[in-house]
Structures are given as C-alpha cells and as structure tokens.
Amino acid sequence: MTIQFFGAARTVTGSKHLLTTANGKQILLDCGLFQGINTDELNQEFGFDPAQVDYMVLSHAHIDHTGLIPRLVRQGFKGPIYTTSATIDLCEVMLMDSARIQERDLERVNERRTRRGEPELEALYDENDVQHALDQMKPVHYGSPFVICDEVTGLLTDAGHLLGSASVSLTIQDNGIEKHLFFSGDIGRPDDKILRSPDTFPQADYIICESTYGDRLHEAEPDMKAHLLNIVRQTCVENKGKLIIPAFAVDRTQELIYALDQLESEGRLPRLPVYIDSPMSVKATQVMRDHEEDFNPDILAYIKKDGDAFDFPNLHYVTDVNESKAINDDKEPCIIIAPSGMAEAGRIKHHIKNNITKPNTTILMVGYASPNSLGGALKRGDKEVTIFGERYPVIAKVAIMDSFSAHGDYREMLHFLSCQNPARVKNVFLVHGEYDKQLVWKGHLEEAGFQNIEIPEMRQKVTL
C-alpha cells in the first residue's frame, strides 16, 4: 500500500493525496486547485491518470481542496466522491463560481502568454464538468462508517473548520493486515463562533496532518466584536473611508455578518451600508441557513432569540455586477465584504484596486492568505502589490484580525491530536503548510511523543 502526495506538499494549496491499495485500488483524498501567482501550469497536469482513480473522499469545500474535481472528471474519473451533504451543497455554489472565474481569468492569462510567445492554456473545466462532478458526489453522515470497496471502510468526523468539513479515517485490509490511515483535512478551532468544535477520531497507524499554523499561536482576542467595531469607527466614521474585507465566501463571511448582526442588535453599529458583494456569498449564506445541524449551541440560541443571525438593517446582499461597480463609484463610507479570502479573484480584487491608493481606506485581513497571493503580500506589509498585472503602492491601511482564522494554531492542533496514543502511530506526514512552518510543527509533535514525522515533497511516494 502506498500514498503519493500530488499537492499541498510543502505548500498550502492544491491538496490531493493518492492512496493505492495492495490490490491496486486508487483512492484520492481531496483534489484541490493550486492558488496564487504562477500556478496556472500546475493546475493543468495532475501527475497521475484521473481515469485510473477508483474512488475519492473529500474533506471539505474550500477551493484549495475541491477546485480541480471537475477537471478530474473531465479527464476520465468516473467513481463516487464521498463527503458530507453540506459539503455537496457548498460545492455546487463554489465550483460553479470557480468555473466562471477561471473562464474570465483565462482570457487575461492567455493574452499575456501570447505577448510572450507562449502557447495558450486550455480552460481547466466548465460548468458542465462541475455538474458531472456534483452528480458523482455521495452524501455521508458524520460518525457513520461507509464501505468504499472490499478493502477499505471510511469514517468522517467533524473537523470544525468549515460547514460540513470532515476528517477522514480509513480502515484498510492490506494483505490480511488491518491498517488505519487518518487524514486531518483542515483542522478547525474549538471556539468557532458558528460551528461545533472538532471531534475526536479513532486511533490511527498513519496520520496525514495539516500544518498551516504549525509555527504559531493565535493572539488572544478578548473581545473580537469590540476590535471589529473599533476598526469600523476609525475607518468609516472618523476617516469617512471604506472598510474592505476579503473573506472566504463560506464561514468567514457569515462569521463577520453574525458579529455585525450582534453589534447592530446591541445598538453599537454605526448607521452605514454593509455590502456582501458576491453572488456566491449570497448563495453560501443560504446554504449555511439550511444546515443549522452543524451549528454550535450559542448561535442556535441567538437565532432562536433574534430570528436570523445573517440579516440586519443596512445589510445589502449584492449579486448584480452593475450594483457592484456602483459601490466603487460611491464615495460614501461603507463596509464591503467579498471573496476570495486571499484576494486572488472575484470582485474583492476590483475593490482593492480601486481603493488601495486612498489613505482613508482600510483593508482588513481576517484569515489565512498564502505568501504568494495578493492577500499574503498585504498581510506581509509589502509597500507595492501587483493587481491585474499592474503595480500599485499600498497607501491604504492594512489591518489584521486573526481571531477570525478557521485554522487551529499549533496548541489547538495538538489538542485535536490528543485523542491519539503517539506510541501506536507509525508515521506522521505533514502537508498543507509552508516548509519552514512545518519544521517548527514537527518539533512540537516530537515533544508530544510522535515519531517518524515526514514532510513529503511534491509527488513523493511512500510505502505504508
């Protein structure tokens, strides 16, 4: 039995790990898009034959874990995709949006390639491919074992990272020996404002573990709402500017709306327009409403009292592109929330471009952004950034609120892994992290008693 790493290897995007059983069955864990600068060619070729993959298990709906599933289907994958029902509903929203964004972005990419004398790239997939992929998705309940094939049984447990997010436990019959492989997916936080805390999982022999924040602890946020309110007042009331927030369309956007809803209910939010500028965010918010079974008790109690955690006066859900453009033309103070969280695509990129040179603007980063993304450059404090191929000075203020992060820090990830007996774990493979952070995370794991920790390179194959 082997595992080969075709993405999220010493990087945080493109998650995809291919398990091959003793009898030759291939099971793909996630199939994510590589995101960031200079990733176009990485997304063209998988490094394996999609038609040879028999099954897939999907941890959650973020594009760096799902964004190449339609291409996998286009190139011949015909097997079932096991995941939660909430993930399927989110994939319908997010992958359709991804197909449309890629179509638009590909025109710009190919214009540049033509000028450089390089061959044009083909579209990764279209909306028909997305629909075929959705048709292959099979819903699975948390905590209910499901048969993948004669050799493999699966189990999904709540990862607390995103609506419907799951960690994956596989029980594999390998030449008469039962082996247990665990894939963490992305590990959530125990104090998420909307979702339940991550769940425990069965003892594993082999662990594939994310390492996004393996080198750090999130700063304590004694009053997240007060911090957010202070930024709103400074930007929109005192400086009469716009507060622009790149946020993932699912969970981070709803967490922001929920915080603003609470501030409005308490009578503390200034009277100014709040725009959720994304058709995908509008649809994703409705998916969230449809899956309250994944919510924690606190927000359920708030909904019972308030009626709706995602709606309040002066909140505007924007779908029309002309209305989105009108927001840029409007000089009045406002709050604009739009995906993507890394500021790499969508309407948020236009809002940043049109406001980044204005000193009364604040760009608020509320989650992880890969170092080679626009969001990563802003978080890093770069004085100039590239947007749509043009350089812009960063004159707007950039603020950071890590309390909104959906990824556990190293202490929270250690707590997540505390259900395991380290002495019974034969190998730990670290994925979904920058290499320098993975080295630090490896040290923390060794201190906790885990041994034989590997940081695989891209396309590295390991025999289990």
UniProtKB/TrEMBL annotation:
GO terms for molecular function: hydrolase activity; RNA endonuclease activity. It holds the Pfam family Lactamase_B. CDD domains: TTHA0252-CPSF-like_MBL-fold. The keyword Hydrolase applies. Keywords: Hydrolase. InterPro entries: Beta_Casp (IPR022712), MBL (IPR050698), Metallo-B-lactamas (IPR001279), RibonucZ/Hydroxyglut_hydro (IPR036866), RMMBL (IPR011108). Residues 253-378 form the Beta-Casp domain. Gene3D superfamilies: 3.40.50.10890, Ribonuclease Z/Hydroxyacylglutathione hydrolase-like. The keyword Hydrolase applies. Residues 13-248 form the Metallo-beta-lactamase domain. It comes from the Bacteria. This is MBL fold metallo-hydrolase. It comes from Spirosoma foliorum.
